[in-house]
Design a protein that fits this description.
The protein is an alpha/beta fold. 58% of the residues lie in helices and 9% in strands. It is built from 39 helices and 14 strands. The two termini are 50 Å apart.
Length: 852
């Protein structure tokens, strides 16, 4: 879902005010106070629901944990209830909100739920923000920072991702893009808007919106769709938006429509298969697949920019629409089989308001001070055409006098564009050249790569081009990416192709960089496919990820060279370029975890998970981090199990699940998971880990059952471990698994001393015999190894003792199989070793291995 600069600016200011409101609440309250008393019952319940939905039930509920889940209105009301605790300066600043509270809440809801912005939204939010901060500068630190950033670099908002506390949007599923008219709000045309909505709710299966290019067809279609979306009486299960720029309804175009419907409805593979989705994409009749969706679900399908709509395929498709689903088409030409709504130019009053609004938003001083009568004459000369009005404002902004632009009305657009182009800096012009050479929607990261720009340079150039109407922001709903994309406007492309054709040298440079990026992306995709669960592999869903994936690969290389600061800087650059790409945050998490900065790593993992909660690899890597670092094994196991459900996972994932069960002391489940890992035909490395983990769990589980007096259950634990050991290849038992088997045998022999039931005793004896037979098959010498507990370690002398079966054995650092284990050796630690009864200083433990 894309976001306009206006929407992002409102988000930046509103989220900053919210953060400061929460901080004021926390500074005025004690941690020990009742959160319910402070918030009141209704707000308390709402915050708790949001908290548990986000973090689960295993959270300590208090005022500190609930404050981040208060929205703007809630936080303000809480402060109003405890205002006697607040400094007078803060109280005065809060009074500024009172007249605007309802308006600010509405703006916040529009931002949070991607609803069309109104004409004065940005102005109200900006003015209130400035006034609140001015009243009490020391109380609004976040707001202060945001206002400063906006003054220094308004383009920084293009790197933000909207993330406001909000309850679930109860509207039907949809993929509607953020409205292009966010900058000014929607103007006029209430009569036409109501007619479109009435026709859609009525008997008409198809409604077309007709008009000249730039007259506002797309805007009114979006406005109608959003108003229907929020109408509780709307009859649709889903709203599907498709920008179809093909001149005819080709097979490829129908497949794109099908993909948009499937994604918007949230259909999983099984549901898609039931509807024919998994096979229809290979079918020669993709139209039938779309019609099948429209039959099973009540869908409002909006086809934007269907320019040559007289094609017979489109006619046949629309004539076959099933009952219940409807289609809106925007085009310059009608079909003759639909209910058409023709758009006339804007009225004089609406045209004047649009001109005034644009002048204020873009701070065009030459127009801001003009009388309404003068502005009215200007819009009359432009014949109420919205696109002309926008270009006119851009021309004045570029330095051209209004009367010059209006002198020859037929050349208005060319005048505006010529002067706007001349006003652009060279970096912005280069971006335009790259978009001319490589048309279509491009992500911020792609354009940065093609032009070799930093994130800051790219954002500044894009903002300049957006405000001069050369490019427009669009959502990329037609592919798997959620990133905002940028595309030349129709007028911009026509003008550039006519007046500023790209030179052959520049064309060759951009085409070469595009090929380089595609080649690199394909290599990265191959790596992703070959080893998707390796944390050093970048998860790539499509071409839109290539350029950012390149940066993340560079970050990993910095990390491998030990340049952690450099690696994190590259990650942050990737995050600014592609804030919606989860790998930008996941790679940072991997690097932070390597530095043992668990807090920063978890924060980055959580951000990645917010962006891609259904990614199997991310669920695995995040879950493994939570388990291995003992941060949150319960949540870690949940993430790992989700990864196993989402995809056919490799044994490594199941091994991690087994380890998570051990961390949670669910030893029976750990053995079961390890056994499942063996059924997945692991390689020797993963198979050895499964054996080690499973037998260790068997030892721990049997020990716990013995301590609880459940001797029969202890034998069952050993039996499960024996079956695991016998299920894998002998080669998987080399190394540490051998010692784990020895440890299991040792535990079983001690258990036999406590059993007096013949059947149970015979069963256990048989199990131990099977273990010994398995051990002989691996290494007959291993039967001579023993398990004992460290009793004394002299760190200064590098020696210690092990007690096993009533004997004490001396060992030295040099006797360890891995000298790195020395740091873990302490009294009570289990080890495996070969006993040397004839040592010069008495019994000695050799080839000693730490068992943990």
């Amino acid at each position: 879902m894309s976001s306009s600069a206006t929407r992002l600016t409102c988000f930046a200011l509103l989220s900053s005010m919210e953060e400061d409101l929460r901080s004021i609440i926390l500074s005025a309250c004690e941690e020990t106070e009742s959160a319910q008393d402070i918030l009141n019952a209704t707000r308390y319940e709402k915050a708790v629901i949001r908290l548990t939905r986000d973090l689960g039930n295993q959270v300590n509920i208090n005022i500190s944990s609930l404050a981040p889940y208060l929205d703007f209105a809630d936080a303000y009301e809480v402060l109003s209830g405890i205002k006697v605790r607040l400094a007078e300066e803060i109280q005065e600043s809060l009074k500024i909100f009172a007249p605007y509270l309802n308006k600010l809440t509405q703006v916040r809801n529009r931002v949070a739920h991607t609803r069309p912005m109104e004409i004065d939204d940005l102005a109200v939010v900006h003015d209130v923000s400035k006034n609140v901060y001015s009243a009490s500068p020391s109380s609004w630190e976040c707001l202060k920072t945001t206002i400063y950033k906006l003054e220094e670099n308004p383009a920084y908002v293009l790197g933000l991702t909207i993330d406001l506390v909000a309850d679930p949007d109860n509207a039907p599923q949809h993929n509607l893009p953020a409205p292009e008219f966010d900058e000014t709000g929607f103007f006029g045309r209430r009569k036409e808007l109501d007619r479109i909505k009435k026709a859609i709710k009525g008997a008409y299966p198809v409604v077309s919106i007709l008009g000249d290019g730039g007259i506002g067809k797309t805007s009114i279609a979006l406005k109608a769709a959003y108003e229907l979306l929020d109408d509780p009486k709307n009859p649709f299960d889903a709203f599907v938006w498709v920008t179809a720029k093909a001149t005819i309804l080709t097979v490829n175009e129908i497949q794109r429509i099908s993909g948009a419907i499937e994604n918007s409805l949230g259909l999983f593979a099984s549901a898609a298969e039931q509807l024919g989705g998994s096979t229809a994409k290979k079918s020669v009749d993709p139209v039938g697949e779309v019609l099948s969706y429209l039959e099973h679900f009540k869908v409002l399908l909006i086809l934007d920019n269907m320019e040559t709509v007289l094609d017979q395929r489109l006619r046949d498709f629309l004539l076959d629409l099933p009952m219940g689903s409807k289609v809106i088409i925007t085009s310059r030409i009608g079909l003759g089989i639909e209910n058409p709504v023709s758009l006339a130019p804007l009225s004089g009053d609406d045209s004047t308001r649009l001109l005034q609004k644009l002048a204020r938003v873009r701070n065009v001083e030459a127009l801001q001070g003009l009388p309404v009568a003068v502005l009215s004459k200007m819009v009359q000369a432009m014949k109420g055409h919205p696109a002309y009005i926008r270009w006119f404002v851009a021309g004045v902004q570029a330095g051209k006098r209004p009367e010059e632009l209006l002198h020859e009305n037929d050349l208005l657009l060319d005048f505006c564009m010529s002067n706007v182009y001349g006003h652009l800096n060279e970096k912005a012009r280069a971006v335009l050249r790259s978009m001319q050479v490589l048309p279509g929607r491009r992500s911020q990261a792609e354009l940065a790569f093609l032009n070799e720009y930093s994130a800051g340079e790219m954002q500044s150039s894009l903002l300049e081009l957006i405000t001069t109407n050369f490019i427009q922001m669009q959502g990329t709903s037609m592919d798997q990416s959620s990133e905002t994309a940028y595309q030349l406007t129709d007028f911009g492309k026509q003008y550039l192709d006519k007046r500023h054709a790209v030179q052959s040298l520049d064309r060759a440079i951009f085409e070469g960089r595009s090929r380089d990026l595609a080649d690199l992306g394909m290599r990265l995709q191959v790596e992703s496919t070959a080893s998707p669960y390796d944390p050093r592999t970048i998860d790539i869903k499509g071409p839109g990820d290539f350029s950012t994936a390149r940066l993340l690969r560079d970050a990993l290389r910095h990390h491998e060279r030990g340049d952690v600061d450099g690696a994190l800087l590259v990650c942050h650059e990737a995050q600014r370029l592609s804030p919606g790409y989860h790998e930008s945050w996941r790679v940072e998490a991997f690097i932070q975890a390597g530095q043992r900065d668990v807090t920063a790593a978890r924060a980055a993992y959580e951000r990645a998970f917010e962006l891609a909660p259904e990614s199997p690899t991310l669920n695995y890597l995040y879950g493994a981090f939570l388990v291995d670092e003992a941060v949150d094994p319960v949540l870690g196991l949940e993430r790992l199990q989700k990864a196993a459900v989402l995809a056919e996972v490799p044994p490594a994932v199941v091994n991690e699940i087994a380890w998570a069960h051990i961390q949670l002391r669910d030893f029976e489940a750990a053995v079961t998971s390890a056994s499942h890992s063996i059924t997945l035909k692991p390689d020797l490395h993963d198979g050895s880990i499964a054996m080690t983990t499973g037998v260790r769990a068997g030892v721990y589980g049997a020990g716990r059952k013995v301590d609880g007096g459940e001797l029969d259950s202890a034998v069952e634990c050993i039996e499960a471990a024996v079956e695991l050991v016998e299920s894998g290849r002998v080669e998987m038992l080399v190394g540490e698994p051998v010692d784990r088997i020895v440890q299991l045998i040792d535990s079983g022999e001690m258990l036999m001393r406590r059993i007096d039931e013949n059947f149970l005793l015979e069963s256990l004896d048989a199990l131990l015999s099977r273990l010994k037979d398995r051990l002989r098959a691996v290494d007959s010498d291993a039967l001579g190894r023993r398990v004992g507990l460290v009793t004394n370690v002299r760190q200064d002398k590098k020696f210690g003792f092990v007690r096993s079966w009533g004997n004490d054995y001396f060992f030295h650092l040099s006797d360890l199989m891995n000298e790195g284990d020395w740091a873990y050796l302490d009294s009570g630690v289990a080890v495996a070793f070969y006993p040397d009864e004839g040592g010069m200083k008495g019994p000695r433990a050799t080839a000693l291995r730490w068992l943990g």
